[in-house]
Amino acid sequence: MADLFVTVDGRSLEATWTDDAPETKAALESALPVAGDGVRWGEELYFDLALDAPPENAREAVPEGAIAYWPAGSKLCLFWGETPASQDGEPRAAAPVTVVALLEDVSALSDLEGGARVQLERAE
């Protein structure tokens, strides 16, 4: 069962929390719903979001479908494929990020062009 509903340019996606970053998860969960105009970087969208959360298990290589927070830049990021920083085809952030959730299916994002409005809300 989904923990989050994510809307990207009218596309509805579901996501589940990970257990790797309890402080970041709590900060994001208390801020929900959140939305922003996503900037595209390869197969990643990111938007401004200030959370009071330290880096937790931060890394550059992330799984496909990762929803991650970049504390140094105050950005929430969605990864569904390669970025300009990718190596060997894996999604990769430009700097270490904290993965807080995973999109269950990223196929709806495969034909996304340019930036897009992104919204996250609790699944009830």
Task: Describe this entry's structure for a reader.
With 124 residues, this protein is mainly beta. It has one domain (4-122): Cyclophilin (Beta Barrel). 8% of the residues lie in helices and 45% in strands. It contains one helix and nine strands; from the N terminus they run E-E-H-E-E-E-E-E-E-E. It has one helix at 22-31, and strands at 4-8, 11-17, 34-40, 44-48, 59-61, 66-70, 75-79, 92-103, 116-122. An eight-stranded antiparallel β-barrel has the order 1-2-8-6-7-4-3-9. A hairpin with a 4-residue loop joins strand 6 and strand 7.
Provide a concise account of the structure shown.
The protein has 124 residues and is mainly β.
Q: Topology, please?
A:
Blueprint: E1 4-8, E2 11-17, H1 22-31, E3 34-40, E4 44-48, E5 59-61, E6 66-70, E7 75-79, E8 92-103, E9 116-122
Antiparallel strand pairs: 1-2, 1-9, 2-8, 3-4, 3-9, 4-7, 5-8, 6-7, 6-8
Domain Cyclophilin TM1367-like: 6-121
Protein name: Cyclophilin TM1367-like domain-containing protein
Organism: Natronorubrum texcoconense
